[in-house]
Amino acid sequence: MSSSALWDPWAPARSHITTELSRRLAARGFPESVEALDRQLEDAPAGVADFGYATHRAAKSAGVPADRLAAEMAEGFPLSGGLARVTSDGAYVNFHADTPRLVQSTLELVFARGPEYGRGPSRTEKACVEHTSANPTGPFHVGRVRNGIIGDTLARVLRAAGFPVTTEYYIDDMGRQSAMITWIWSIPVDQWPPSVREGAQPPAGASSTTEKADRWYGRPYPFVSELLKKDPAAAQGVADLVRDLESGHPPARHRELAQAVLDGMLASLGRVGIRFDSFVWESSLIQDGSVARVIERLRKAPHAVIEDNGALVLDAREYGLPKETAKIVVTRGDGTSLYPTRDVAYHLQKFSRFARVIDVLGQDHQLHARTLAAMLAEIGETQVPEFVIYQDITVPEGGRMSTRKGRAVYLDDLLDEAVERAKSEVLKRREDLPAEQVAEIAEHVGAGAVRYHILRVAPDKPVKFRWEEALSFEGRSGPFVQYAYARAASILRKAGLTGPPVGFNADAIAGSEETSLVRVLARLPGTVQYAARTAHVHTLATYAHEVAESFNRFYQSTPVLRADEPVRTARLALVAAARQTIGNVLDYVGLERLERM
RNA sequence: GGGCGUGUGGCCUAGUCUGGAUAGGGCAUCGGGUUCCUAACCCGAGGGUCGGGGGUUCGAAUCCCCCCACGCCCGCCA
Question: At what angle do helices A411-429 and A142-160 cross, to 10 degrees?
Answer without folding.
Answer: 70
